[in-house]
């Protein structure tokens, strides 16, 4: 069998799937859960920060997803999205529910004890309290807004006191693309 025949036989096998082995560029669990958090963030109406969170149990099953938004019944169109306004009542700060809070409250399991929360930004002190009280034992964040800010320093202090592990996820790739036409392409 010469090289040309061998090559054509190999490509035939590839086309029929006979020699196909496992894909190698699949995303791992951590990328998957962080990407779910980022996908959820795309639902956010906040013009400045879109943050998502994804809670996962010890069996790698997702038990809660959330993103930052106004409370139920508080219209996205009527409540303010501005920050640092002369009157605090005109600022989003007093109203917006953060992604972590929503993910915990949206849980589809009895509780989130010993779960891991994946979140785009390191949690603020208010979310840290809710994370600790809910029993979540691990926080995986992608970015943080500076440790010098008291609300993030307070989160660290509380996590360390409560034994909640936290670490930064460093992505292996810059982006993960979703293509809705991929299921009908020739990759199947
Ligand atoms: Zn928060």
Report the principal-axis shape. Answer: globular
How many helices does DSSP assign?
5
Instruction: Provide the structure class.
Output: alpha/beta
What is the topology, as strand order, of the major beta sheet?
2-1-3-4-5
Largest sheet: 5 strands, mixed
Give the CA-CA distance, first to last residue: 30 Å
**Proportion of residues in extended strands:** 5-15%
Low-confidence stretches: 1-14
Helix content: 25-40%
Order of helices and strands: HHEEHEHEHE
Determine Rg (CA atoms, Å): 22 Å
Give a list of the ligands: zinc ion
- What's the average pLDDT? 91
Record field, number of beta strands: 5
Summarize the topology.
Elements: H1 3-16, H2 29-41, E1 52-56, E2 62-67, H3 99-105, E3 116-121, H4 125-134, E4 138-143, H5 150-162, E5 165-168
Parallel strand pairs: 3-4, 4-5
Antiparallel strand pairs: 1-2, 1-3
